Structure formats: structure tokens, C-alpha cells
């Protein structure tokens, strides 16, 4: 953030800190299967659109826009199952969903990474594109309450930490370090809820 004036730097830091707090809170709520995760996440998403634009991480900026859409989708999906207003249970990914994910991530990474590299001043274009692809997949799976979303978040969060340190987004790097612990806790908690409930769905 050395390209900002002192007053702008202060505003950018405050924006990032608020984004960190709301981001941490929404993941904690998601791990507890609390529906308030979605409105809190929307606040964090809006702040990070600004943060990533200024950091020239354009794929991450676009990811936040998609997160906003997926948060509305997840908000609905968590409260409905088979078009009925019934809380959706945690379930496992199907082999078909794994197949789509493994196809989507490399295709999206190469396509977006190439575009950013050749047409913008984006920094770390391919890394940015790859973490965006994996994050989109993880967020979609979380929206459908698939247990494995937490394991995918573990992988991508571990990659995000050094990227944000490199970009001098230190509060955000710290946030993603905390996300690693929350993702593991979320996985264990969701897995426990599956064991306790006979309502596990395969879709």
C-alpha cells in the first residue's frame, strides 16, 4: 500500500480490518451452521471488492462479486430442501460433483489467468486465477452444505497466506491463517452433525 497517501493508507487499513473481522465472523458462523453467516459474509465481500481492486488482484475482486451471488444462493439453499422450507442437512460430495470440480478448476485457471496476464496489469495473474477457481468451487459446495468444502478451503487458504503477505495485505494474511483453523474445526463439526443425524442427503 505504499502507493497511497497517509490518510488513504489509514482508510485502507480500517477497511481491511473491518473486512477481516466480518470475514472471520462469517466463517465461524458457517462452521456452526448458523444462517447469519450469509448477511455477515456480504458485508465482508463488499469491503474486499475495494481492497482487492486497490491491490490489483482482479481475479480475487471478481471472486468477491461471485461470492455475493453465491451467498444469496446459499442463504436460500440452507433454508430449503426439495423446494420446501426445511433446513438442509450436511451431506457428502458425489463422484459427479468431484468430476465437475476437477474439470472446472484447471479450465477456469488457464482461461482467466491468460486473460489477466495479457490484458490487464494484474499481479500474480495465474496464482490469482487458480485460487479464485478453487474458492468458487468451495463456496458453491458450502452453499449446498457439502462436507468436503472445508477440506478444499484448507488447501486454498494455505496458498492465500503467502500471496497476501507478498502483497503486504498483512491483516488479510492473518485472517486466512485463522481460516485454516476454522476450516478444520468446521470440517469436524459438520462431520459430527452428519453422524448424529439420519437425514444425510446424497444431493
From TrEMBL:
A GO CC term attached to the entry: plasma membrane
Main location: membrane
Chain ranges passing through the membrane: 12-31, 38-55, 61-79, 100-118, 173-190
Highest taxon of source: Bacteria
Membrane-topology descriptor: Multi-pass membrane protein
Pfam families linked to this entry: NMN_transporter
Alphabetized UniProt keyword annotations: Cell membrane, Membrane, Transmembrane, Transmembrane helix, Transport
Main function: Required for nicotinamide riboside transport across the inner membrane.
Family designation: Belongs to the nicotinamide ribonucleoside (NR) uptake permease (TC 4.B.1) family.
Name of this protein: Nicotinamide riboside transporter PnuC
Amino acid at each position: 500500500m505504499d502507493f497511497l497517501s497517509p490518510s488513504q493508507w489509514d482508510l485502507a487499513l480500517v477497511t481491511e480490518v473491518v473486512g477481516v473481522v466480518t470475514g472471520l465472523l462469517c466463517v465461524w458462523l458457517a462452521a456452526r451452521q448458523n444462517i447469519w453467516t450469509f448477511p455477515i459474509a456480504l458485508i465482508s465481500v463488499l469491503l474486499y471488492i475495494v481492497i482487492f481492486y486497490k491491490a490489483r488482484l482482479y481475479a480475487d475482486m471478481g471472486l468477491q462479486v461471485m461470492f455475493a451471488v453465491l451467498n444469496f444462493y446459499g442463504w436460500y439453499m440452507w433454508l430449503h430442501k426439495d423446494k420446501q422450507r426445511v433446513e438442509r442437512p450436511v451431506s457428502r460430495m458425489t463422484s459427479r460433483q468431484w468430476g465437475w470440480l476437477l474439470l472446472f478448476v484447471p479450465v477456469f485457471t488457464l482461461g482467466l489467468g491468460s486473460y489477466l496476464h495479457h490484458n490487464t496489469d494484474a499481479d500474480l495473474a495465474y496464482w490469482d486465477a487458480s485460487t479464485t477457481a478453487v474458492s468458487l468451487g468451495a463456496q458453491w459446495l458450502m452453499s449446498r452444505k457439502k462436507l468436503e468444502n472445508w477440506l478444499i478451503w484448507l488447501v486454498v487458504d494455505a496458498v492465500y497466506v503467502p500471496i497476501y503477505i507478498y502483497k503486504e495485505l498483512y491483516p488479510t494474511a492473518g485472517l486466512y491463517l485463522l481460516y485454516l483453523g476454522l476450516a478444520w474445526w468446521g470440517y469436524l463439526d459438520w462431520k459430527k452433525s452428519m453422524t448424529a443425524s439420519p437425514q444425510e442427503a446424497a444431493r
